[in-house]
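Sample entry copied in:
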Amino acid sequence: MNSTKSRGVGALLIAVYAVFAVSATARASFQLLTKFDEAPLAYSLSALAAVVYVVATVALARNDARSQTVARWAVKFELVGVLVVGALSLLWPAAFEHPSVWSWFGLNYACLPLVLPIFGLLWLNRRAAAN
C-alpha cells in the first residue's frame, strides 16, 4: 500500500473513531446521568465503550511505537467488547431493554461497531509492516 493511500485510510479510520468517541461519550453521559436505573449493565458497558473509543482515537492518531501498542490493545479490547455485548444482548435481552450501538453486534448500526475494530487492526498491522 502506498504511503499516501495509507495516510488517507488512516485519517478516515481516525475520524470514524473520533466520531464514535464523541458520540459514545455523549450518549453514555446522558444514560448514566438520566436513566441508569433502567439498564445499569447496558449503560455501564456503554460508558466503558466510550472510554475505549477515546483511548483508541488518541492512540491511533499518534505515530510512535508506544501509542501504536496502546491502539492495538484498545482496538482488540473493543472487538472483544462488541462480541461480548452482542452475545449478552442476545442471551439476556432484559439487560438490554434499550438497544445500544453495541447490542446485537451492532446490527442496528450496519455492523459498524463490529467491522470498525477489524479494519482498525488490519490498518495497524499494515502500518507496523510499513515502519
